[in-house]
Every structure is written in C-alpha cells, then in structure tokens.
Amino acid sequence: MTTVPLLSIIIFLPLFGVGFLLFMRGDEAILARNARSVGLLTSLVTFFLSLLLVVSFDTKTSDYQFVEKVRWISSLNSYYHVGIDGISLLFVILSTFLTPLAILASWKSITRRVRDYMIAFLVLETMMIGMFCALDFILFYLFFEGVLIPMYLIIGIWGGVRRIYASLKFFLYTFLGSVLMLVAIVAIFFQTGGTSIEEATAYHFARDMQMWLWVAFFVSFAVKVPMWPVHTWLPDAHVEAPTAGSVLLAGVLLKMGGYGFLRFSLPIFPEASHYFAPLIFGLSIIAVIYTSLVALVQKDMKKLIAYSSIAHMGIVTFGTFTFLQEGVQGAVFQMISHGLVSAALFLCVGVIYDRLHTREIDRYGGLVERMPYYAFGFMVFTFASVGLPGTTGFVGEILILVAAFNINGFLALGIATGMVLGAAYALWLYRRVVFGALTKDDLKKMMDLTRIEKMVLAPLVAAIVIFGVYPQPLLDISDKSVARLLASYQRGITYAKAKESPSEVKISLFEISSEKPKKSFVETSKKDTI
Amino acid sequence: MTPNLLPEFIHGMPEVILVLWALVILMVGVFQKRSEREGIYYITFVGIGLTLFMIYSSFGNYAYSFNEMFKVTPFTQVMKGVVLTAVGAVFYMTFKHFPREQMNRFEYPVLALISTVGMMIMISANDLISAFLGLEMQSLCLYIMVSISRDRPASNEAGVKYFVLGALATAFFLFGSSYLYGFTGTTEFNGMAAVLANTSEVPVPIGVAFMMILIAVGFKVSLAPFHMWTPDVYEGAPTPVTAFLAAAPKIAGFVLLLNFVATVFTSHGSLWTPVLSALAILSILVGAFAALFQRKLKRILAYSSISHMGFALLGFLSLNAQGFENIFNYLIIYVIMTIGAFAALLTLRKRGQLLENIEDLTGLSKDAPLIALCMTVLLFSLAGVPPFAGFFAKLSVIQNAVSGEHYLAVVLAVLGSVVSAGYYLRVIKAMYFDEPVGGEHTMAVDKTIPMQTKLVLVMSTFLVTFYVLMPHLFTLEIGAYLR
Question: Which end of chain B is less crowded, N or C, counting CB atoms within 10 A of the terminal residue's CB?
Fold first, then answer.
C-alpha cells in the first residue's frame, strides 16, 4: 500500500491533540471554548483519516492490512505491531465515528474543567483505536487496560451523584478481570516464544493449556462485555457517567469484550471454545432473558438502556460461539449496530436530561407534542433497538437467529424470547416518555432539539437506516476475515480430532503449522544458571 | 612481611573516596556557621558525582580483593551507580526542606554518605563478614537519620523502634552466619558454594542458617512478615529521610540477597523457591490489604513499598540471567516511582506543614493541577496500570515467575495488585473527585515549592510515562555482566 504509517497516525493523532491541549493557557472561558474546538477538530480529522482506511481497504483478502511492525520489548520478543482486518476496521470506524459525536454532545452540558474533559476523551480515543489495531498481546493489553484510566476519570469527575462508587467499581471490576489475562499472555509467551497474535493463532496449544488460557481470557472479556453474572458494574457506571461517557462506554468499550472473543478465544483456543460453548450459550440466554426482565421494571432511563445493552451483548456472545459464518457475521454486525443504537439512545436520554435534569421515566410523557424532531429520532433508535426490519438492529439479530436455529431450536427460542422482551421494554419506554398526555407543567416549556443536538443525532439516524436497508458493504468488509477466523477455528478442531483418531483426517494436517519446539526459560536456564 | 595493601584498595576506590568525602564534610561542618549550611549540601553532590565518575572510569573490571571478600564486576558497578544516583536524586530533591523539617544539621549528609558506602559494600560483598559490615554500616546510619529531628517525639520513637528491631535482625544474621561457618568452614560465598555443591541434600543447620539470613535481609528490605517496622518508621521519620529509606537501601538489600542466594545456594533451588515465593505472596497481600484502611499518605506508601518488595522477590523465582535483568529492572522502576511519589509529598505543604492525610489532598487537582497530574501518573504506575512504567516492571517479574511455573504465586500476586489498586485510587479520588468542604479556595497549598523538588517530580513522571517508548532503558544487559 502506502509507505505512510496511516494506522499509527490515526491511533496517535488524538494524543497529538492532547499535547496541544496540555500547553494551552488562558482565561477559563476562552480556554474552555478553545479546548472544545481542539477536541472536536482532532477527533474529526481522525475520523476522516480513518475513512481513508475504508477507501484503500482491500476486501478481497483476509490478511492484515496497513501492517506496521517495529521491535519493542526484546525480552518478551514483542513488537509494536499494528494492522487491521475486516473485523477490526469496522470497530476502528465505529470508534472514530462516535468520538466526535460524543464530544459534540457534551458541547453545552460540560462546563466544568472542559480542557481536562477533552484530554480524557482524546486519550480514550487513542486507546480504543489502538486496541482494535493491536496485533501483539502486550500492545493489546496496554490499550485494553489503558482505557480504564480516562474512563475512570470521566465517570469520577464529571459523573452523577454516586460517581465515586461507580467509578471505583468500574475500575476494580475490569482491572480484576484483566490481570488474569496478563498472566495468560505471559504463559502464551513461554509456549510460542513471542507475543505475536498471529503466531499464537498459528500455534496449536495443548488441550489442557487451552482450557486454562481460555478461562483467563474469558474472565477478562466477560467482565468487559459484560456477561451475566459479572455485569453489575455496568448499570452503575452508565447511570453515573456523563452522557458522552455513556456513549463511548456502550458504543465502544463493551465491544472490546466481544472483539476479544473473536480475536483470541475462537481462533487461538478452538478446542476450549468448542468445549465451553454451552457455557457461553447458557450465560448468554440468561443474560438476554434476565436482563430484559430487569430492564422492564427500571424507573431510570439510563439504567433501562444499560440493561438492554447487556441483553444485546448477550445476543452477540451467543452469535460468536455458534462458530457459523452467519452467527459470527451477525455478531460483528450486531456489535456495530449496538454501538450506534445504544450510543444514540444514551444521547437521547442526555438531550432531555439536559433540559429537566432527571432521568426518571415517570417525570416525562407526551414529549411528542413539544419535540417532534426528538420524537422522530428517538423512534428510529427504539425501532433499531427492537430490531425492526429496515434498521441495523434487524440484520444482526436475524443472522444470529438463523445460526441459533442451526445449532438448536430451543436455544433459538431462548434468544427469540429475549428479543420479544426487548421489544417490550424499548417500546414501553418510548410510549411512556414520548406519548401520552402532556400534563406536566415543566414539560410544556421543553424546547425541541437544538442545532448541535440535531448535528449529533442526524448522522446516527442516517447510519442506522442506511446500513439497515443496505447492510452489504459492512458485511463485505468483515466477510473474508470472519471466514478466515472460522477456518482457523475449524483447523484447530480437526487437528484435535486427528490426534484422537489419526486415520480419519489426514489431509487437513497439511494446513496446520507443526508444533514448534517449546521455548522455555526453565530449559535454557540450565545452561546459564549462575 | 605485611602484604602490600594498595592494590587491594584500588578496586574499592569509589568507597574510599566517599568515606573520605564524608570526613571532609564533617570537618567543614564543624567549623561552619549554621546559616551557611547549604554549602555542605553542595559539597555532598560533588562527592556523589566524583564517586559516580570513579565507578564510570573503572567500568568493566572483574576483580576480587581483600581475600575475595570484596567483589567488583560490571554488575556491582552498575548497581552502585544506581544506588548513588538514587541517593543523589533524593538528596537533591530534599535538601531545601531540611530547615523546615528540623534536620538542618551537618551530620545528616555525613551519615547519608556513610550509609551509602555501607550499601556499596553490601553490593560488593562476597563474604559473610563484608556483607555484615556493609549491612550494619548502612543500618546504623539509617537509625540515626530516622531520629535526626531530635525535637520531634515521633521521629525519636521511629528511630528507637527501627533500632531495636534492626538489632534483632542483625542478631539473626550473625546467628545464621555462625551456622554457615560452622558447617562449611568458611565465610566466603564461593567457598561455601563449593562445599554445598557436594551435598545433594541440604543439612538442617544450613536450612536454618538460610532462614536466619533471609529474615535479616528481609527485615532490611521490609518483606512481610518482617515488615512491622516499616509503616511506623516511614511515618515517624522526617519525610526527606523516609524518601532516602524507601529508595536506595532496597536495591542494596536485594543485590545482597541475590548474591547470597544465587552464589551460595545456586544448586539448592528446592530450598529457597518455596520460601521466597511464600514471602513474596505474603508481602504482596499484606501490602495490599493493610493499606486499604490507612489514612496517612506515608503509611500508604510504606505498605505500597512492602507490596512492591514482594513483587521484586517474585522475580527470584527464575534464577537465570534474564531473571536478574527483570528483578533489577523492576527495582529501578520502583525507585523512580517512589522518589517521584515522595517528591510529590514534599511539594504539598499548607502553611509550611506537610500534608499527611488523604483527605488533605481534597481538591488538589484544581489547586495544583501539575502536581496532581504527576502524582496521578505515579500512582497509576505504582498500581501497575499500563501504559506506565510500573506495568512493565510487573510484567517482567511475572514473566520470571511464570517461567519457573509458579502459577499459583503469580495469580495471587496479580490479584493482590488489584486490591492495592484500591488504595491508590482512593488518593486519586481525593485529588480529583472530591470537592473541598469549604468551597474551592480552602485548599491553598503553599506555592513556594523548591525548584529542585519540582524538577525531580517532573523528571520521574516523565520517565514513568515515556518508559513505554523505550522499554530497554533499564534492562542494562546485566546478564552479560554477571560472569
């Protein structure tokens, strides 16, 4: 492709903006205004640069593209190794698309410490993009964990009443989840002699080893997704986070777990994934049904949407572990769709929260009379959340449902039940907030969307409808990569079967890179022990 | 005929220079007025610089002197360099604070330098006798330094506590040494190793001796369960002394431990790996859980250092060249973070008094944004959150432990690090999330911060932040220097 390190530029451009913000001086008000502009400008430029990736992305190949590789930590044989395939490209675009919207959404609502706020968001953007591009375990972990710092500060400084509790819970929960992954990464290093994700994918781990490593990775991703029963940090974090924080939390941060399952669990530990798939199905179905029921009884709008996120992500994890092209494609699509829809829903809550400073559902009603534009936008997002045909929500759900029927009719029934419940709470929320009689006095003075709010919501409406009607471009981008991912999964499974009964499968053995000699400190140390 | 001692002394020149320098300062100090004291502090820097230069100019030597009691290798030279740099940095950031801490005495630099010589002898020790001399020379000076602010009862109490417990540890060391000598007939490390190499089973007295010496060294570097003195002494000592105590001595102690374990017990891994991993885990967990309920910043840092020592010990679980690099990589990063954290503490004064409690930091991010930012970075780094240096340090010792297949120890250690993140976050919470009780401007920390302290703070923050770009900064290729 080009010799310009486009990917690195996109990853680190937000940090450049941070450097700029750090050295800004001046009066508080002017500083705030300038900080907003710098934040928005940086994230917009990042977004447009990331569109360059789409333009020059080759959908015909499943290889990693825009690869950059620089030696980094020699004692761990680590590289600064970034590159994207079809799956990561979608998430990179999602991140760069949502960040400017999040910054724009906090244009008026954040008045305190605006510069710090922008710094936190730009650092967060770098971490998110970097994580989706990383092709080295250590680099991945660095970004994966690095996300915690800005998000912790965003919730803690600009959050609601119980922000301190929520931010601490968020940090410790996710930190606890991911430290085990670090141990697993070091263990992988001793198996494969490096920390390259590609090498690990080509390597065949022994069955026992796979189980342990899979569990370690599972814990950290399950907390991130979040899966039932480790989801309890999410409602707290969402409720207390400022609107824009919720947008990125739901829009991108939750996808890190799902992305992790796709990038690590399936291709690197196929046997373990196969073995644990029923567990995932079980947890996913519980998540879908249980959290939908919990969502039904919520009085707080943000909490309701937070629980709906858990339910939707349950559908995603289910799709991922069907190991079918439709299922995994559906999972990827559903994640992108959910990234747009949940972000949009949180923005909608933010709009009315800014006016009335309450998120209690009962305090609203009949908004359609005063806020027609708002009612329209909210409607599109609600339909997308429900999965109505013509919106992105439908595409992902139908693909996963098809895959689910291929696996087992009863499982599909469980997922479908969750979807029905999803329709119930989403539509009921809409009815209670937007329809009904406009009786409350303070609601009568509510203004419709401002120009900035329209600017924030319009792109989301457009994206949801366009890709809902014509999802093929997105599916095309991820198609080859998903196929390769599943091929690598299949290879692992056949290899395992071949070891059990060697006569059955011989041909497929050619595809497997033969097991490398185990590199270990313990052995080498014999020579140079002091 | 007396042997010609001069060639023996050549290898110990840096130590000799430093001792002479301390004596010069003593002389100058006696004849100097109290108001002109700063002059001595500058002379101290010259002494440290000169010693560093001595080490640098003889770098690359391999030599034994004084009947193999004293060992000079590039490894020991690098470590001495690190110790001297740490001492210099601590001294540089603290000397402007001496008057306010009631420790503006000329004895202080003298004691600090002699203590440093003790550390250097510990690093070079290749014999139980020289190890003991170094250990005591270092400790005795530290006891006095801890209680140097004579008018403050807390300082005196800390000094006495440190001394009494330290003397006990010394007794353990001697007791263990006597067993080792009794069994092997020598006090010299290589000689003992030669005797022990011929035994397949470690005799019980040797095991006892090993434990005794481990207790003594573990006390000096504050490993649990020999850590009891740490929080009290850290809290009671004047903050500049605490900073001194928390940085360089730990490195010296670990080099001694490493030399001892790796030389004498190299062929008896089954003896020390379970013990060391148990101590490591215990230290990490004690450091993590005990600090959760502390309010005083210095006590929190004390527990944090206990926990960090546990992590450094975890690195021992794979004793090979790469493992050495990782241990000392860890210690160097620890020292940088600790010095930075203490620099931050020293900058925070309200009406001349150092801030002591977490609550005192409330709203600091508005009052002193730069200090709050630096401190946040350092705390996240201490907690081991990427992308800061502390993460890479933890990563490298975890690598060691996993290579020795101590999975349980590693899992417990990382879980302990999550717990310890809890109290680092409490400090950050106070600085950023809490609103000052009486409105925004009740905080008002003093703005007259010595430039030196600020410089050290910013430098350490800088190193901790940008370490990610140069993860080989402190790897030092120690492995290549060992033999």
Answer: N
Cα–Cα distance for residue pair A35/A115, rounded to 1 Å = 5
- Examine residue A33 and state whether it is found in any structural domain, yes or no: yes
Tell me the chain B residues in contact with residue A75 when contact means C-beta distances shorter than 8 Å.
Answer: 322, 325-326, 396, 399, 475
Number of domains in chain B: 1
Q: How far apart are CA B138 and CA A299, in angstroms?
A: 65
Q: Which residue of A has its CA nearest to B482?
A: A530
| Contacting residues of B for A149, CB less than 8 Å apart | 380, 385
Chain A hits for B468, Cβ within 8 Å: 142
pLDDT tens-digit profile of A265-276?
A: 888 888 888 889
**Per the CB < 8 Å rule, is A525 touching B318?**
yes
Does position A516 have pLDDT exceeding 60, yes or no? no
| Distance between B399 CA and the closest CA of chain A, angstroms | 6
Cβ contact A314:A228 at 8 Å = yes
Chain A, residues 25-64, CB within 8 A of chain B, namely none
Q: What is d(CA A184, CA A383) in angstroms, rounded to the nearest whole number?
A: 41
- Contact residues on chain B for A21, CB-CB shorter than 8 A: none
Q: Is the residue at B187 inside a domain?
A: no
- Look up residue B36 and give its two tokens: 């002109």
CA dist., res. A374 & res. A458, Å (int) = 11
A209 in B contact zone (CB under 8 Å): no
Strand A79-84 to A65-71 pairing:
antiparallel
- B376 domain residue, yes or no: yes
Q: Which of B267, B394, B407, B432 to mutate to test the interface with A (most CBs of A within 10 A)?
A: B432
Instruction: DSSP for B262-326, please give it.
Output: HHHSTT-HHHHHHHHHHHHHHHHHHHHHHHTT--BHHHHHHHHHHHHHHHHHHGGGS-SHHHHHH
Residue A518 pLDDT: 42
pLDDT tens digits along B81-128? 999 999 999 999 888 888 887 777 888 899 999 999 999 999 999 899
Residue (of B306, A365, B368, A282) closest to B376 by Cα position: B368
A182 at the B interface (CB within 8 A)?
A: yes
What's the ipTM?
0.88
pLDDT at residue B267 in the model: 73
Residue of B nearest to A113 (CA): B366
With an 8 Å Cβ cutoff, is A426 touching chain B? no
Chain A residues in contact with B319 by the CB 8 A cut-off are 525, 529-530
What is the per-residue pLDDT across B341-362, written as a single tens digit (0 to 9) for each? 999 988 888 877 888 888 888 8
Question: What's the domain count of chain A?
Answer: 1
- Decide if A243 is inside a domain: yes
Full domain range(s) for residue A228: 6-513
Q: What pLDDT, on a 0 to 100 scale, did the predictor assign at position B482?
A: 55
Which residues have a Cβ under 8 Å from the Cβ of B345 and sit 6 or more positions away? B239, B297, B298, B301, B354, B355
Q: How far is B428 from chain A (nearest CA, A)?
A: 9
Nearest chain A residue to B260 by CA distance is A530
Does position A529 have pLDDT exceeding 50, yes or no?
no
pLDDT value for A522: 39
Q: Backbone phi, then psi, for B350, in 5-degree steps?
A: -125, 120
Closest CA to A7 of A56, A79, A60: A56
Residue A526 lies in a domain: no
Which of B318, B415, B425 minimises the CB distance to A521?
B318
pTM, rounded to two decimals: 0.90
Which 3 state secondary structure label does DSSP give B405?
coil
Residue B330 included in any domain:
yes
Is residue B243 assigned to a domain?
A: no
Range of the domain at B478: 273-483
Instruction: Tell me which chain A residues have a C-beta less than 8 angstroms from the C-beta of B410.
Output: 183, 186
